[in-house]
Amino acid sequence: MTKQPQTDTKPLDDAFLHSCMYFTTNRLSRAITRMADEAFATTGLAPAYGYLIRLVVGKPGIAQKELSEKLYITPSTLTRFIDKLEAKQLVERQVQGKTVLVYPTNKGKELVPSLREASLKLKATYEAILGKELADQLTHDHEIASEQLER
Q1: Cβ atoms of 81 and 67 closer than 8 Å
Q2: How far apart are CA 67 and CA 75, in angstroms?
Q3: In whole angstroms, what is the distance from residue 69 CA to residue 72 CA?
Q4: What is the pLDDT of residues 69-97, one digit of tens each?
Q5: Cβ neighbour number for residue 90 with a 10 Å cutoff
Q6: Closest by alpha carbon to 100, among 75, 74, 128?
Q7: Which of 101-105's residues contact partners 24+ apart within 8 Å by CB, and which partners?
């Protein structure tokens, strides 16, 4: 008589996923990223590029270092972003000593109304699903948690 391999008939316990900040935050991130991509589709830019342009237009001559800090991305990632935006003639860099300053072009400035509209569309979309109060509370809570975890 041959012995059959023992199979685990116990159902997979996935409860740990639903109590894990790593998993739930990434799940939320994927959902909001899809919404943001849809909202920004009309601009021809990914959301991160749109927010970068808005910062540059809001503060022409902003240092690359400051931009990477405001966007919470590494300097190397920011450099790639700026390279792409320069290729589209939306921003330009100027070197002053060891500092790299970023300026909007006229073409970049012209995009600001559509970028603002995309940001508002994104916010309206998630507020319609979550409700304004919960959306505001989640945004606030994520900001506080991020600050504490980044220390």
Answers
A1: no
A2: 9
A3: 5
A4: 999 999 999 999 999 999 999 999 999 99
A5: 23
A6: 75
A7: 101/61, 101/62, 101/63, 101/64, 102/56, 102/61, 102/62, 102/63, 102/64, 102/67, 103/56, 103/60, 103/61, 104/53, 104/56, 104/57, 104/60
Angle of helix 47-58 relative to helix 106-130, nearest 10 degrees, comes to 120
Entry pTM:
0.86
Specify the residue for token string 């996935």: 14
Burial bucket for residue 106 (CB in 10 Å: 0-12, 13-18, 19+)? exposed
Instruction: For residue range 3-51, list pLDDT tens digits in order.
Output: 655 565 666 788 899 999 999 999 999 999 999 999 999 999 999 999 9
Give the DSSP per-residue string, the chain. Answer: -PPPPP---SPP--HHHHT-HHHHHHHHHHHHHHHHHHHHGGGTS-HHHHHHHHHHHHSTTEEHHHHHHHHT--HHHHHHHHHHHHHTTSEEEEEETTEEEEEE-HHHHHHHHHHHHHHHHHHHHHHHHH-HHHHHHHHHHHHHHHHHHT-
> How is residue 94 written in tokens?
């100027």
